[in-house]
Specification:
80 residues, mainly alpha
Length: 80
């Protein structure tokens, strides 16, 4: 079960991304996959180098999940 705290962290990240990049900054599936791959690599580096703050492994995983959810939201018409 996804806790309310985790949902809130992901929603906060989605809003952060919208504020930073704009709500109209949409990607095709390839773009989302490349961004997610980059975020995964950043999460790995955050873990390997024991980074903190926005570069921490937890923060990077939240960023990865937020991008994944934005991708699903964008492509939801194709999920039927």
């Amino acid at each position: 079960m996804i806790t309310k705290e985790i949902i809130q962290l992901i929603e906060n990240e989605i809003q952060y991304q919208k504020d930073k990049w704009g709500d109209s900054c949409k990607q095709d599936i390839a773009g989302y996959l490349l961004i997610m791959q980059s975020e995964l690599q950043e999460a790995i580096q955050g873990w390997m180098k024991n980074k903190t703050g926005r570069d921490s492994v937890l923060s990077e995983i939240i960023q990865l999940m937020a991008i994944g959810i934005r991708c699903l939201d964008e492509l939801k018409g194709g999920l039927k």
